[in-house]
Amino acid sequence: MIEVTRLNGTTFLLNALYIEKIESFHDTTITLTTGTKYVVGDTEEVLQQKIQHFYGQVQLLSNPATRRENDEE
Questions:
Q1: Pick from 13, 22, 69, 70: most CB atoms within 10 A?
Q2: Distance between first and last Cα of the chain
Q3: Residue 61: CB partners within 8 Å, gap ≥ 6?
Q4: CA 11 to CA 59: how far, in whole Å?
Q5: What span, in angstroms and rounded, lies between the C-alpha atoms of 2 and 66?
Q6: Beta carbons of 37 and 31 less than 8 angstroms apart
Q7: What are phi and psi of 22, to 5 degrees?
Q8: Does the global pTM surpass 0.85?
Q9: CB 30 within 8 A of CB 14
Q10: Average pLDDT rounded to a whole number, residues 14-30
Q11: In the predicted model, is pLDDT for residue 59 greater than 90?
């Protein structure tokens, strides 16, 4: 989950696995795979950093070879 900020300054948690796209118009719009859209105050760059951090925490972008899971003895 990542924390995002609404335009009114309140925050909520969003499951980053469901984000399909992020677009910047005047504000930043997050579109989920369900079609739900959220307009937030966070910039694309901030969201990208949060998403990458989240993916690292759940090891979504990790390489199994660096964890030695595929090593044969």
A1: 22
A2: 37
A3: 52, 55
A4: 25
A5: 25
A6: yes
A7: -130, 130
A8: no
A9: yes
A10: 94
A11: no
**C-alpha span between 41 and 66 (Å, rounded):** 36
71: phi then psi, degrees, rounded to nearest 5? -70, 130
Integer Cα distance of 47 and 44 in angstroms: 5
Smallest CA-to-CA distance from 25 within 50, 3, 7, 52 is with 7
How distant is the alpha carbon of residue 46 from its chain centre? 10
Task: Name the residue type at position 3.
Answer: E
Q: Where are the alpha helices (DSSP H) in the chain?
A: 44-57
Number of neighbouring beta carbons within 10 Å of residue 27:
12
Task: Evaluate if residue 41 carries a pLDDT over 90.
Answer: yes
Q: Which of 16, 48, 19, 45 is nearest to 31 (CA)?
A: 19
* Residue 60 CA to its chain's centroid (Å): 11
Which are the contacts of 60, defined by CB distance < 8 A and separation ≥ 6? 17
